[in-house]
Amino acid sequence: VQLVESGGGLVQAGGSLRLSCTTSTRTFSDIMRWFRQAPGKEREFVASIKWTGGTTYYADSVKGRFTISRDNAKNTVYLQMNSLKSEDTAVYYCNQGGAGLDSWGQGTQVTVSS
What we know:
By secondary structure, the protein is mostly beta strands. It contains no helices and eleven strands.
């Protein structure tokens, strides 16, 4: 499985970005997750979505501001990030999990300037 992320960048506080993660393969039971890691901090969960059914979960810190979605036809998961804050600055990683599967993307940098 290969995961390719895109969409990171520099944005002012209050702005928006949309991250994309495209997978080379998926099964109906896989779950796609976004994590992030800020400098000097541990990697933390941001959001997740199931390919089948589209059930979503969010970290409390991003609820109401971030939206995870998927396009099954494109094998792509998105993370729409609105009302960005300086504390959202981090490298964002896409993760695909399933039976015997735990794959990670290379990460994309998101920097929010205050």
